[in-house]
Amino acid sequence: MPSGANRQVPTQEELAIWRAHIETFEIVRSRIEARLQQDSQLSSGDYRILLALSEAEGRTLRSSELATHLEWERSRVSGQLGRMEKRGLVRREPCPEDARGQNVVLTDPGARAFRASTLPHLRAIKDVFVDALTPEQLASLGEAATATRSHLGLEHRS
Amino acid sequence: MPSGANRQVPTQEELAIWRAHIETFEIVRSRIEARLQQDSQLSSGDYRILLALSEAEGRTLRSSELATHLEWERSRVSGQLGRMEKRGLVRREPCPEDARGQNVVLTDPGARAFRASTLPHLRAIKDVFVDALTPEQLASLGEAATATRSHLGLEHRS
Fold it and tell me: What gap in Å lies between CA B36 and CA B48, rounded to an integer?
């Protein structure tokens, strides 16, 4: 394995950190998602879309904006929105400015479901993620996320 | 929102870090997975199972051990193994010690596919994850993963 500045692959130590990181936070995520499903009957996809819409102007986003924001394929967004529309959580409307576009609107029941899910979801994040870490460890995770977003050319998140 | 020692929900700052962390590393993961699929025609599920088997004694694990290791439902493991068996990557056999158990064995083609995927996958991990971070940031991520595993009662990973 080559080493030094032109090294193209991780060291054993870097790789061990990658594996510990990805495996651990996959479990964190799946535990928090299981609680969301159990407490609020929402999948993580439901939740992410409800969250994005609840923060959007007029509770409305273009479905293409949702796809970009989630980094999902458009077919996946479309399937997800179809299921949410059947449950009355969102409504899809033609986009006035673009005949080929589609607006996704948060419905009142969707907004209520999102609000009702908030407190138990926050508790799960606290129990599973925040309480595991010291304030310094938490701050380092924030810095690592910022550095990674910048490296990948993603927009800055506040 | 309550505050102080008995606080049950994250602060705004803790929550912002959670969101940045989960969203950023979801993108990291999906970019690395897309490269794995493109370079080696393996999904991340395929890869995790091939990796676990390649490190197991006799290249064999019980399917229940795989489910525990991956924290997947048994039905998901079973569906995944069925697809991999069709492609010749693994073989399922009755377990000699347990009539209800099943052994999963890495086949030679599975071992070859895993080996061939390694170098491009390591390059993707380097490009997308390692190169984003300073050595200090990487070390902090490792510490955070260790602290989280301990908090969640997971076994220590080397």
Answer: 12
